[in-house]
Amino acid sequence: MTKYKRILLKLSGESLMGKNKYGIDNNKLNDYAKQIKEIAELGVEIGIVIGGGNIFRGLSGAAKGFDRVKGDSMGMLATIINGLALSSALDNVNCKNKLFTSIRMEPIGEYYSKQKAIEALNKKKVTIIAGGTSNPYFTTDTASALRAIEIEADVFLKGTRVDGVYDSDPEKNKNAKKFDTITFDKVYKMGLKIMDLTATTMCIENNMPVIVFDMDTVGNLKKIIGNKKIGTLITNN
């Protein structure tokens, strides 16, 4: 039995680097593909948004002198490179998938629309939606919240390198407290840097629950789908 019929999975671009300092670690990419196939075989409909920080981050580029709009455009292209890589990895493990881009880039990927994405999901194809929101000044967290709402996902799964939400940075504070559950309101009041405010607001207004979890631990994704208590659940109440 699975708890969720349809999910939106956000993957971190930085996590794709694995132990590298830049680019894509094939072992990490293949681990992700195998975990995704595992839950796809359980009948879960999977939408995916990937960050691009392993290749280029627009905000960092702006700090180095890039025009912000052009820098963000470069970041959106980086997410498409990652989307292509994941699509290829899924092909290699015989997992049906479809790549959409929010920017017209045929024949690299089909131009995204809600209707076409839901059609692909209904056909049990892992649906990768790359290119962010297609607009500058928006993060891939915001793109993930937007796509989760658009595809009518049951939950937004934010796969990271940490195992949940803490009251302070667990890498800096050994006594940091982890939350099993927390409200969006408390996240905001405590100033916890989980997602940007736009993404958080969209989830609040559309009652979209978020689970922050460690995607790098093999098996965690399947455990969440099986209703095991992994990571931190963030809700309105």
Helical content stands at 25-40%
What would you call the shape? globular
According to CATH, the homologous superfamily is Acetylglutamate kinase-like
The spatial strand order of the largest sheet comes to: 4-3-5-2-1-6-10-11-9
How many domains? 1
Largest sheet: 9 strands, mixed
Here the CATH topology equals Carbamate kinase
Distance between the termini: 26 Å
Unreliable spans are none
* Number of DSSP strand runs: 11
CATH class (first level) name? Alpha Beta
The number of helices is 8
What does the average pLDDT come to?
A: 94
Label the structural class: alpha/beta
**Strand fraction:** 15-25%
CATH architecture: 3-Layer(aba) Sandwich
Radius of gyration: 17 Å
Order of helices and strands: EHEHHEEHEHEEEEHHEHE
